[in-house]
Write a structure and sequence with these properties.
Bound molecules: 1,3-dihydroxyacetonephosphate
Low-confidence stretches: none
Structural class: alpha/beta
Number of strands: 10
Strand order of the largest sheet: 1-2-3-6-7-8-9-10
Shape: globular
Radius of gyration: 19 Å
């Protein structure tokens, strides 16, 4: 079994493979299920994730690991085996969301702090026993055209990320550090240059905090937003997003970090793929650039499945397609033709 942090991190970003973020909290998945008129029961959540994880070919070829929610890492399938056994069988690593969500930050109106540090050492020990070899902690950074985020909120979130990361490495678990400058935030009318400035400041603070906490850069992955204009003011071309995102990352992310795995929220499925491919075509780069998508890998599959047993095959087909498109993007080889050829 792979035990060194560096080996785990490398396996997660190997040649075009990326991560499936399937760690939606019961609250979030309820919203997604509402859209397909499906009740969010434990059984439906399990059936949905079992459908994704048993898409064998896609999981083997394109997905290196899956981020799970606490419920999923303990869940059994109908034959009594663990859901995580399906992942093992296709050679996919199990990851675990360990933060307990973002809560309003006292004295900072409109900003949040991510909670979950208390007792984290013990929880990580248990998750390791349950098979988790990597973890995720998401800090949410609000953005507007002028005032948000504040330096205070950035620093407090960076500090929490660093303490989480150090505890993960102590437990033999690779931390994914996710400081998300919201791409789908409200009011979502900021420019791409505003997003650049904010993302740069956030990444500077995060790496300063990680250094101070003695986090080993070789044994972690960064999960950032892309540098993009707000959802309600989208003008930038694919090339501009790719260039500005790369510029920002090169200014802030040490080359010792093995990989950067983007989140997708706030972009359409195809935008998330096109941007990733454009960046990879501008290489060589100091780190691997791939995906850790939730929505952009799942939206089409969930809609095609619609909660019905008879739709499992079409759901899996839709998931397989997006996984392959993002794999091509991680190699810088995606094109509109590939998208349509499927
Ligand atoms: P999205 O790709 O849907 O943003 O989800 C990724 C994730 O893990 C957010 O925390």
């Amino acid at each position: 079994m792979m035990e060194r942090l560096e080996d785990i991190a490398h396996a997660l970003i190997a040649e075009g493979k990326g991560i499936l973020a399937a760690d939606e909290s019961p609250n979030t998945i309820k919203k997604r299920f509402n859209a397909i008129r499906l009740e969010s029961t434990e059984e439906n959540r399990r059936n949905y994730r079992e459908m994704l994880f048993s898409t064998k070919e896609a999981m083997r070829k394109y997905i290196s690991g899956v981020i799970l929610h606490d419920e999923t890492i303990r869940q059994k399938v109908s034959d009594g085996s663990m859901l995580t056994d399906i992942l093992k069988a296709v050679g996919s690593l199990s990851g675990i969301k360990v933060d307990l969500g973002s809560k309003l930050l006292a004295a900072f109106p409109g900003e949040t702090i991510t909670e979950g540090l208390d007792g984290l050492r013990g929880r990580l020990r248990e998750y390791y026993e349950l098979g988790a070899r990597f973890a995720k902690w998401r800090a949410v950074i609000a953005i507007d055209r002028t005032h948000l985020p504040t330096r205070g909120a950035i620093r407090q979130n960076a500090h929490a990320l660093a303490r989480y990361a150090a505890l993960c490495q102590e437990a033999g678990i690779v931390p994914i550090i996710e400081p998300e400058v919201l791409m789908d935030g409200n009011p979502g009318n900021h420019s791409i240059d505003r997003c650049y400035d904010v993302t740069r400041c956030v990444l500077e603070q995060v790496f300063a905090a990680l250094g101070e906490a003695r986090v080993k850069f070789k044994g972690m992955l960064l999960k950032p937003n892309m540098v993009i204009d707000g959802e309600n003011a989208r003008h930038a071309s694919v090339e501009e997003v790719a260039e500005k995102t790369l510029h920002c990352l090169k200014e802030t992310v040490p080359a010792a970090v093995p990989g950067i795995v983007f989140l997708s929220g706030g972009q359409s499925d195809e935008e998330a793929t096109a941007h990733l491919s454009a960046m990879n075509s501008l290489g060589p780069l100091p780190w691997a650039l791939t995906f850790s998508y939730g929505r952009a890998l799942q939206a089409a599959a969930m809609a095609a499945w619609g909660g019905k047993k008879e739709n499992i095959a079409v759901g899996q087909h839709a998931f397989s397609h997006r996984a392959r498109m993002n794999y091509l993007a991680a190699l810088g080889k995606w094109s509109q033709q590939q998208e349509k050829a499927a």
